[in-house]
Amino acid sequence: xxxxxxxxxxxxxxxxxxxxxxxxxxxxxxxxxxxxxxxxxxxxxxxxxxxxxxxxxxxxxxxxxxxxxxxxxxxxxxxxxxxxxxxxxxxxxxxxxxxxxxxxxxxxxxxxxxxxxxxxxxxxxxxxxxxxxxxxxxxxxxxxxxxxxxxxxxxxxxxxxxxxxxxxxxxxxxxxxxxxxxxxxxxxxxxxxxxxxxxxxxxxxxxxxxxxxxxxxxxxxxxxxxxxxxxxxxxxxxxxxxxxxxxxxxxxxxx
Amino acid sequence: xxxxxxxxxxxxxxxxxxxxxxxxxxxxxxxxxxxxxxxxxxxxxxxxxxxxxxxxxxxxxxxxxxxxxxxxxxxxxxxxxxxxxxxxxxxxxxxxxxxxxxxxxxxxxxxxxxxxxxxxxxxxxxxxxxxxxxxxxxxxxxxxxxxxxxxxxxxxxxxxxxxxxxxxxxxxxxxxxxxxxxxxxxxxxxxxxxxxxxxxxxxxxxxxxxxxxxxxxxxxxxxxxxxxxxxxxxxxxxxxxxxxxxxxxxxxxxxxxxxxxxxxxxxxxxxx
Lengths: 255, 272
What we know:
The structure holds 2 protein chains of 2 kinds. Chain A is α/β, with parallel strands linked by helices. Chain A folds into 2 domains: 2-77 and 172-254, P-loop containing nucleotide triphosphate hydrolases (Rossmann fold, 3-Layer(aba) Sandwich); 90-156, no CATH class. Helices cover 38% and strands 23% of the residues of chain A. Chain A contains 10 helices and 10 strands. In chain A, the strands form 2 sheets. A 6-stranded mixed beta sheet of chain A has the order 6-7-8-3-9-10, sandwiched between helices. In chain A, strands 2-1-4-5 form a 4-stranded antiparallel beta sheet, covered by helices on one side. In chain A, helix 3 (93-100) runs parallel beside helix 6 and helix 5 (125-140) crosses helix 6 (156-168). Chain A is globular. The two termini of chain A are 33 Å apart. Chain B has one domain (3-200). Chain B has helices spanning 3-27, 35-52, 57-76, 85-104, 123-140, 144-154, 156-161, 166-192, 202-215, 221-236, 244-258, 267-271. In chain B, helix 2 packs across helix 8 (166-192), helix 3 runs antiparallel to helix 8 (166-192) and helix 9 (202-215) crosses helix 10. Chain B is globular, with a radius of gyration of 18 Å. The termini of chain B are far apart. The chains are: A alpha/beta, B mainly alpha. The interface between A and B is medium-sized, with 39 and 29 residues.
């Protein structure tokens, strides 16, 4: 599905990622964990084209997407959420998800002029479909009743869920979730666990960066551990959990 | 209607056209203090078409608007990578370049400008152009591209992650804004009847900017309200005679204090 090979990222004199290899299997949930500053978010940013890599390659389903601009990466089939929530705060929840449909719809300034008059009550074709799909996704993430609420007025947990709905709106084949459990209570983490399972069942491959070890252990098929920009272990959760290098680098400090 | 008020209303229409043209790039997060430059290009090109070539005004406006839009696209590309105060400085620089170009360009009379322009700008024509521009902005709102514009204004990184091509959206918004300013310039020239580079300097750009900010950028009605206030208020204040501009300035400061997000600011924005 996703093949990351010998990826490196350097910021001036700081080596954020060194020779990172990552192979994500289709249909799996793949977690990337590691202590703060391990390079997890940088890895996401390089994969999605927010940052250019210094060396190495990224391929989606055999297609080289190394260094592609972020909007082209999204067109290729990768969607993401952000660790520091980046919603369109002055737009309501539904509109946020509708922006997420951008890659699956067409029409610029000219098309806007010639569309039927009468606002959303007379929408036809693609625009009506966009709205219907956006509502469906809001239902999926449990925000069906918040469609008209400004994104900036939602609670942090609702905002994280809205980011997931917005990302899913592009019909991605690969979804990257950057710390989706941040700031959640145990009950909310359980809801998220269910949501990730539902997303996987719908055929979307999921990669998540997460601090919440119990969620990672329960939801993922494969765990990759980063420490100081290098992969120190990768494998099924149970094996990674017992890996002495992982315990030393990360889990040991938590336990 | 007396010719005095008709003239005031034509200026109101022209200011509305100019403010609406600046509203579009601003709604994509691109502040511009160089709109006087696009206005100058539109004014000079339109005058060349009508006065020298003898074309009818609508044909001249079309050419003037297109040339201004072309200039807008050219400025739009370097403007992509920068934002905020730096973009303002870049656009200010552009406005000055245009002014100084016409100041030195012999065929258009350098500093002495072009006179003898026919009075072709009528109130119905100005109203029509302003209404068409307002209608376009209304149509953009709530469409796919309108949502993309708002998304770019809210958060460029997130908008790009949603697949929005920032280059295309921003350059197009900037070029369309320049097109509107070019139309405004052409209309202005055929009402003022004399143009010279000094009329399109920094002060003009700042005035257009002031109109939009005063009205509020939350809605396309903001520029309309702003244009009405900036055009009509000084006329209505004639009774205070030489204190007119002082009172006008004081009222603007009051607006800035009492309605910092513009006269038509949505309540939630003011609270945020």
